[in-house]
DNA sequence: AATGAATGAGACTTCATTCAT
DNA sequence: AATGAATGAAGTCTCATTCAT
């Protein structure tokens, strides 16, 4: 943190009492609970205590509202991961930290982040490009992380990245808070499974 | 055996040309392309060349139509995996075969199977129970597969199962046919990544 | 009753096992419970254990089905009233007996009779004529009954008839079986109220 | 008091030209012409020159629209009767006035009032309670009116009330404007029939 | 006499969105 | 920035009815 301290809000010329953020919050909450197509503008408005028409003071269309939520979500995950990365230098430690941050973001109450995993860009053609671009920006970060790993020769790094992110993202499907493992533990176990190798040492059964 | 036997088992007044299967096909196609909420009964009907109301001769509600598609999908994946398993005895070979069968089912043109991965049961409360029950039936098969693996002591077998299935299922999100790797190759790479161990040092084991 | 005795059914050429009567029963039951517009052919069919299309083996349209029920209903009320009239000669006794018979018919389980009171002919233009004609046939009977009463000069006999029948018919709106008074009692009280005169004798308050 | 007062009490952003009343009018007109089940939202909308969906700006469901019409109807009848009662003190005069007011309300062009008699609450389960409650409110007024009558001992006052109201209400079934008697005349005749006593012998009393 | 599938119209209702105020 | 009313299209589903079998 630099000079600008807590009390002094950044001088954005947005009316201080704009309720756009509230709208985004509500939309995020509903999108990630019910999906995009399963959520109506009415519901979002009701959640904020507005009338449906009023939403259009802040966002031109439902699609754009999603895009805004999505952007915030990617931002949050990026931030979380970057903060986590800042604490480690070892490549395996770094990827583990990234997994923990990613999983915490998409499993906990950060609705924006969860939307990024929940909503398929292809379902909203009008903004598909924008969504994919944002998601790609984030995933390139993972490409770098995986590339930095010291791996056995001929390891398929792309498959590794996809496997890891896939496992993490899919967990949103079955994870329920208060379950056996916390997001942090879960992330670590996934990484451990990959790192250690599962073929029993002695048997070397292989093919 | 008299005259009226083999050819006409009991087809008497059965209207053999029910178009229910076509409806299921169309529904599966659209559900997995556009999602459940994003698909309309109108579209399904149009795809079969029926009027929307005619769909209700075969399925009482949209929800039930989904449930029927879903059931067929689980059936198909189960069958595919079981057939694949029949060819192997070694636990690692078996799980690899299951991964290949699973991935081929949910990435190729088997729309029913793809719907199982695409649609979240929680999005359709009216039939959530039914969907989850079917999916669970299938997943228990995986629990057995993972349990059969000879693994280092204290390996978290649940995490392993979730990781593997998660990675497979999520691939539906990004996979495009004609890509770099076929479903079969992809599945094998995922399994290989897990089996070998990626830490450089004791890379001795493996295939 | 003439020669044709009980065991020998009149030689109608209707197939003895026709289920048309069952259909009529079911239709009557539902029409008088839910009204005409509020009852569907599906419901009627289900009540008889048929499919909707099968109803059309017996009745060409829903309207005609109503007309048939209605006809049976008028028939039943007429019969009941005529039987009741057969037992009395005194005009007041006769009208009281008619009221009792009428009320018992439209309040008890005779669904056909109840439909006659429940359904407004005007709601079913296609058969309105037929319904009204049948109802009129019955009401002419009441005109005769009222005309036969020895009444004070200048009594409005038409108003009397309308009032009496109106009170009787409307009771279908509020009457619940098992209530304070039976249909028979109720009918008698109505007649008594009319016959006795309610102005208190001595006061002669009137206008 | 400053400038901005009297003329604009609080009308600020109130869109004064709501068409809800027009919708109610149209609904009442159609409900009492065709019955509740026999009337469609389309028809109502067309009658007001709206699109069907626009009706839902004002009423959440067809049922609620009926409830609103019904409420207005009860209100109107109550008002009419109470106004009529205000002019009389003699109990017989009062009940006669009530009958006249009631009958004029449900036979003339007050569609709201007519709906109250036309529609059976039991046909619309979702709002049955509300309708019955309103109707009961009105009928309690009649209980009081009848109780106030000086009647021969042991007269069944409940039967009297039901008979009178039944006769009045049922007249909606057969009455056609421009007929022999006006609603006012009809009501008076009904009351007269009850008051005088119709047995020939002691016809002394009366008007 | 009855079935099962389908029709075609239309039911009620909801959707995202617009716009004058 | 927000409202209340409205739009126009479309949503799921139901209706009476038809017809080959």
Quick synopsis:
The structure is a homotetramer of 207-residue chains. Chain A is mainly α.
The largest chain-to-chain contact, stated as pair and per-chain residue counts, equals:
C-D, 47 and 48 residues
Shape designation of chain A: elongated
Count the helices of chain A. How many? 8
Low-confidence stretches of chain A: 1-14, 202-207
Helix/strand structural class of chain A: mainly alpha
- The oligomeric state is homotetramer
The count of β-strands of chain A is 0
Strand content of chain A: under 5%
Mean pLDDT of chain A: 89
Terminal CA distance of chain A reads 55 Å
Share in helix of chain A: 55-70%
Order of helices and strands of chain A: HHHHHHHH
Cα Rg of chain A: 20 Å
Main β sheet profile of chain A: none
